[in-house]
């Protein structure tokens, strides 16, 4: 009887539920099954109350910190690049200052004056040349026109325009 | 799968996953650690859980794979031997009359395949098809593991009872 029951228990298709429902007169097997069930209960009772998401939370926290660090790094790079760009632009602006309205007007007036004096002197030269032709002046006199000092009273002859 | 759905699934499966990990690793802290690691892996691959028909089996398979990785690493560092020595020392502390504790010790001494099969079939109440899917072995092989494991436990139990 005992062997039969034991065989039944260790049979491959045996289910624990079948055993609890069946009437078993074998005390050893009965006791074993009780211990077996108690073992299950004891293991269940020993399950600690732990947080299964602990590592997941840690991972998320790490990822958040990493992203934060990455953003800070990117922001600092952006800041440095912006500062360099602003610096370069500032230097370039200093080298090429824009002209004010007054400066432009002054420049225009000076140009006009220079052109007026230039045309006046050119007319004087041409008149001298015509006169020399008319009176058949010797060649040496005409050649002296080359060395004519045309500066006279030109007020902008020494003006330096940058 | 949304975060709340995932959390719900894990909270439902938490104890089963822990017990299964414990049946393989035989250490509470390591089992706890394994479950937390598996939860992290499952979250990273939650799309695969969506594709899987049976979430429970999928989670248990993930635990099994992770625990075997842990065992492999332990073996590599030769810590596994130390663990066994500790267990043997612990074993002598228990009173022979505490049959349940004795059974627990003996369950831990069973080969890992038998231990896993018994844990899933007898204690977690899965059917042979589900166990075979998780353990990636045929249902017949699982039947043999369960049967041999039970037989061994019963023989040891009988011996203990006779000694008393």
TrEMBL record, chain A:
<keyword id="KW-0472">Membrane</keyword>
<feature type="transmembrane region" description="Helical">
    <location>
        <begin position="70"/>
        <end position="88"/>
    </location>
</feature>
<keyword id="KW-0812">Transmembrane</keyword>
<protein>
    <submittedName>
        <fullName>Uncharacterized protein</fullName>
    </submittedName>
</protein>
<keyword id="KW-1133">Transmembrane helix</keyword>
TrEMBL record, chain B:
<dbReference type="GO" id="GO:0003677">
    <property type="term" value="F:DNA binding"/>
</dbReference>
<dbReference type="InterPro" id="IPR013249">
    <property type="entry name" value="RNA_pol_sigma70_r4_t2"/>
</dbReference>
<dbReference type="InterPro" id="IPR036388">
    <property type="entry name" value="WH-like_DNA-bd_sf"/>
</dbReference>
<dbReference type="Pfam" id="PF08281">
    <property type="entry name" value="Sigma70_r4_2"/>
</dbReference>
<comment type="similarity">
    <text>Belongs to the sigma-70 factor family. ECF subfamily.</text>
</comment>
<dbReference type="Pfam" id="PF04542">
    <property type="entry name" value="Sigma70_r2"/>
</dbReference>
<keyword id="KW-0804">Transcription</keyword>
<keyword id="KW-0805">Transcription regulation</keyword>
<keyword id="KW-0238">DNA-binding</keyword>
<dbReference type="InterPro" id="IPR039425">
    <property type="entry name" value="RNA_pol_sigma-70-like"/>
</dbReference>
<dbReference type="InterPro" id="IPR014284">
    <property type="entry name" value="RNA_pol_sigma-70_dom"/>
</dbReference>
<keyword id="KW-0731">Sigma factor</keyword>
<dbReference type="InterPro" id="IPR013324">
    <property type="entry name" value="RNA_pol_sigma_r3/r4-like"/>
</dbReference>
<dbReference type="GO" id="GO:0016987">
    <property type="term" value="F:sigma factor activity"/>
</dbReference>
<feature type="domain" description="RNA polymerase sigma-70 region 2">
    <location>
        <begin position="14"/>
        <end position="75"/>
    </location>
</feature>
<dbReference type="InterPro" id="IPR013325">
    <property type="entry name" value="RNA_pol_sigma_r2"/>
</dbReference>
<feature type="domain" description="RNA polymerase sigma factor 70 region 4 type 2">
    <location>
        <begin position="102"/>
        <end position="153"/>
    </location>
</feature>
<dbReference type="InterPro" id="IPR007627">
    <property type="entry name" value="RNA_pol_sigma70_r2"/>
</dbReference>
<protein>
    <submittedName>
        <fullName>Uncharacterized protein</fullName>
    </submittedName>
</protein>
<dbReference type="GO" id="GO:0006352">
    <property type="term" value="P:DNA-templated transcription initiation"/>
</dbReference>
């Amino acid at each position: 009887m005992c062997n039969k029951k034991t065989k039944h228990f260790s049979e491959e298709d045996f289910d624990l539920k079948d055993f609890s429902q069946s009437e078993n007169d074998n005390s050893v097997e009965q006791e074993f099954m009780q211990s077996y069930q108690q073992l299950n209960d004891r293991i269940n009772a020993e399950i600690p109350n732990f947080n299964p998401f602990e590592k997941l939370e840690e991972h998320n926290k790490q990822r958040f910190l990493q992203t934060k660090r990455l953003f800070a790094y990117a922001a600092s790079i952006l800041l440095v690049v912006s500062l360099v760009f602003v610096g370069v632009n500032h230097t370039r602006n200093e080298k090429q200052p824009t002209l004010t309205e007054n400066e432009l007007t002054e420049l225009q007036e000076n140009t006009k004056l220079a052109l007026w004096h230039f045309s006046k002197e050119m007319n004087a030269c041409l008149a001298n040349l015509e006169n020399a032709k008319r009176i058949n002046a010797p060649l040496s006199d005409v050649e002296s026109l080359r060395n004519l000092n045309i500066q006279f009273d030109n007020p902008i002859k020494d003006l330096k325009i940058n | 799968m949304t975060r709340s759905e995932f959390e719900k699934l894990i909270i439902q499966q938490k104890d089963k996953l822990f017990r299964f990990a414990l049946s393989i690793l035989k250490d509470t802290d390591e089992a706890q650690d394994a479950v937390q690691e598996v939860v992290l892996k499952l979250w990273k691959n939650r799309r695969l859980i969506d594709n899987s028909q049976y979430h429970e089996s999928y989670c248990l398979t993930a635990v099994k794979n992770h625990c075997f990785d842990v065992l492999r690493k332990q073996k590599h560092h030769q810590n596994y031997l130390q663990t066994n020595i500790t267990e043997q020392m612990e074993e002598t502390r228990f009173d022979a009359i505490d049959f349940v504790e004795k059974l627990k010790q003996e369950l831990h001494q069973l080969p890992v395949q038998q231990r896993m099969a018994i844990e899933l079939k007898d204690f977690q109440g899965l059917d042979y098809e589900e166990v075979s899917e998780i353990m990636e072995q045929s249902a017949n092989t699982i039947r043999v593991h369960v049967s041999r494991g039970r037989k061994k436990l019963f023989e040891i139990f009988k011996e203990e009872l006779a000694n008393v």
